[in-house]
Amino acid sequence: MLDVSFDPTHSGPLRGLRVLDLSRLVAGNMLSLQLADFGAEVIKVEDPDGGDTLRQWRERGPEHPEGVPVWWKVYARNKKSLAIDLRSEPGRAALRTLAAGAQVLIESFRPGTLEKMGFAPEALLALNPKLVIVRLTGWGQTGPYHQQPGFGSLVEAMSGFAAKNGAPEAPPMLPNMALADMVAGLYGAFAVAAAVREVETNGGAGQVIDLSLLEPLLSIM
Question: 21, 25, 147, 178: which has the fewest C-beta neighbours closer than 10 Å?
Answer without folding.
Answer: 147
